[in-house]
Amino acid sequence: MEKRKKKLVFPDTLIIVAIVVLIVAVLSWIIPSGTYDYKEMNINGRVRNVAIDGTYHVIDKSKVTTTGFLGFFSSLYRGCVDAADIIFVILCCCGTFGVMVKTGAFHSGIGVLLKKFGKKGLLLVPILMILFGLGGSIFGMASEFYGFYPLIIGLGIAMGYDAMFGFAVIACGEFIGFMGATMNPYTVGIAQNIAGLELYSGTWYRAICFVLFEVIAIIYVLRYAKKIEKNPKLSAVYGEKSIHEFSEGDLESYSFSKSDAVVILDMIITLVILMIGLMKWEWDYPQLCGLFLIMSMVAAGVKKWTPNKWCSEFIDSAKTVVWGCILTGVAKAIVVVMGDAMIMDTVIYNLSNLLKSAPRGISAGLMLIVQTFINFFIPSGSGQAVASMPIMSQLSDIIGVSRQTAVLAFQFGDGLSNIFWPTADIVIICGLGGIKLEKWYKWFTPLFLILLAAQLVMIEIAVFIGY
């Protein structure tokens, strides 16, 4: 009999993340449980619980919940429950913008752009990436851009490239901007307040970092575009149909009508109101979803759709991201297991002790690595700041690194890994973009390593110049 060679099949991302949950569940029995004492602190007008350095203490394992066999499977359910707000945001965003796209207004708008910039208008890449980057760098915008993913991915495909190209333009643009934060209130603002620094001091150096990182990312994306332009088979998603692909004929043949203009205006007004609300009135996911629903209903009304047609198109669009929603919940289970066993603070405590014994020359770089590692367990920028910065700011005094550099290491570690760790934003935006996580890792890992090296260089320069 003829022997058949079995093709090595890469496991589904859900399986990989579930295995990580299982590993953390096993570690919940091994890693000592412990916690810092916390105090309430008013930071930029909001009361937050902040860890107190030097107060870490071990807790008896009998007083915490370690994850057993049934607990492991239960944690997957609890992760989905805890991530319910994010899951519904993903469903709402994709359903809403599915409706917006199906009105045909964006086909017409993108057709106009293609006529203006040409089929290979790569000039749009640096413009869009810098705009998204400035939003993340200055205002800390992340979820505010969720609605743009279908549009930018569709534009990337219409330009003759692929879904990964469009996805990278917005994902790298906004999150590398978030990493190179100049005045991000959720990272730099909170971290500097905790560290006792003047608010937004040292902006000049962070601005240099922002420009450097964005330039690296733009070059990487443009090189990828040129590569698949020469050989489409080199596409990271070759042979896969995107859920955001505009396949309805030649986009350049679309005419831009008055109703199309009203739909586009509807979207612009909604996004402006949302940005003002998020920054001025502390709006959150409920207001975001509410505005998006209203926006899609107005667009449907402009195009004279029936209510039944709006419902049908909304549901059909939301169906496309069910996989991403489940993945988001499963990834959240990692945090659930660690929280039950109370081992997060133990990880932070031991990592900070590791830094104390490191030579000054490499301690700042190690601080960056530690913060990147901590972001796996605490993927929230503000959450990581209040949990780690009280310890790291005191530790920086001991190891001879300035507190400004400690803040820099924190913002670098938090920002970049947001689009790498499966516990962070990447699972959300992959769901929105219809991009498989394993495909993203294959495409992004080289850029991640390049940017990590650039971060280490900028950290060491900061130490050298006494930043």
Secondary structure: elements and pairs:
Layout: H1 13-30, E1 33-35, E2 38-43, E3 46-51, E4 57-59, H2 69-82, H3 84-102, H4 105-117, H5 124-139, H6 149-158, H7 163-179, H8 185-195, H9 203-230, H10 258-280, H11 285-302, H12 307-319, H13 322-341, H14 344-356, H15 360-377, H16 381-399, H17 403-416, H18 426-433, H19 437-465
Antiparallel strand pairs: 1-4, 2-3
Helix pairs in contact: 1-13, 2-13, 3-11, 3-12, 3-13, 3-18, 4-10, 5-7, 5-9, 6-7, 7-9, 7-17, 8-16, 8-17, 9-19, 10-11, 13-18, 14-15, 14-16, 15-16, 15-17, 15-19, 16-17, 17-19
The tally of strands reads 4
Which of globular, elongated, flat, extended, rod-shaped describes the shape? globular
Strand order of the largest sheet: 1-4
Largest sheet: 2 strands, antiparallel
Order of helices and strands: HEEEEHHHHHHHHHHHHHHHHHH
**Poorly predicted runs:** 1-5
Strand content: under 5%
- Name the average pLDDT: 82
Helix residue percentage: 55-70%
Quickly count the helices.
19
- What structural class do the secondary elements suggest? mainly alpha
**Terminal residue distance:** 70 Å
Q: Radius of gyration, Cα only, in angstroms?
A: 23 Å
